[in-house]
């Protein structure tokens, strides 16, 4: 890979440095495949050169029968803009991979062995890891010359200590089957916690990140290391989400099976796809929920209050885990845009030094706590693709130096 033996300027928005003569600005194709979608971006640092999504993969009437066909559409869209897979200016391809288990705790250059490792983790992420692998297989075939890097959604949480990552079940069974807390949304928690820490007066900073999108998770980060997170072995645990229940008494599952005769797969679908805000009030889009609350709809009001109560509970829990908190950061579609959720979640916490300035919050300013507050409350838009591109370039640079 001689053509990559160059100094790559990582055009990050925090480095402050400008590219020098002879440096090239690393250009990364970031692929983020879900079970039925592929999102792509071409990033050059903070600059987004192209982006798009292919959705409804495999559904009737969709132009993409599978992930390979979806990547064909991506390739076509990119080629129209002279940014195709064959572009000589591409430095690397970064793949978001959902589950790295305990094996992959860092961004990893993709080799045959790494592909086998990701395959071995399919039982822990049966919908996502196969989609990620399908994309990896195609892009390795199309560009065997190009460095390809797997950036794992679980990796940022690998520092969580055993006291927080261990479930209190039979030890031998848990170890044998890999049953433990892994956590997800890792690239978002890494990116947002790093930005949030810059707002703290002193270092090392203690930060609580609330990533509230369609999926939602909280994390507690101390001096750049994640010490706890709300998602668990799978992304079902923790906060109330668009269609997922979050925390639940496990006995509810046995009750549904015994009393309703539901199969395990039916209960899986119920808790992952028909619960959360959707299950509570019939709408999983927070904008619709908020409009209904404003109109006095009791089901929407209950749903929003359950959502915000759970959030407040996790903030209190992570305050206790961290001992002290410098910054609480809201991110994701709900966290970045919903002033009512931010306000409700933080109401009644003034004894902990946590408060929200209603005017700043209403305007969606980046700092929404009052001046002089003990805990800064921030709205920080996440940028997972930037983080994946940066981590990908970091691996390419390290590999070049070895
Ligand atoms: P994400 O998964 O991060 O893209 O977040 C998507 C979710 O953000 C949507 O389903 C909405 O519930 C929520 N959202 C987006 N815009 C707004 C908004 N202006 N106000 C409240 N919620 C929003």
Automatic annotation (TrEMBL):
Active site (UniProt)? 153 (proton donor/acceptor)
Which PROSITE patterns does the UniProt entry name for this protein?
ACETATE_KINASE_1, ACETATE_KINASE_2
Compartment annotation = Cytoplasm
Cofactor(s) required, per the database record: Mg(2+); Mn(2+)
Arranged from A to Z, the UniProt key words for this protein are:
ATP-binding, Cytoplasm, Kinase, Magnesium, Metal-binding, Nucleotide-binding, Transferase
Q: Copy the pathway line from the protein's UniProt record.
A: Metabolic intermediate biosynthesis; acetyl-CoA biosynthesis; acetyl-CoA from acetate: step 1/2
Reactions catalysed: acetate + ATP = acetyl phosphate + ADP
User: What does this protein's record comment on cofactor binding?
Assistant: Mg(2+). Can also accept Mn(2+).
Chain positions recorded as Mg(2+) binding sites: 32, 384
Annotated site location: Transition state stabilizer: 185, 244
What role is this protein assigned?
Catalyzes the formation of acetyl phosphate from acetate and ATP. Can also catalyze the reverse reaction.
Q: How does it assemble?
A: Homodimer.
Family according to the record: Belongs to the acetokinase family.
Q: What protein name does the entry list?
A: Acetate kinase
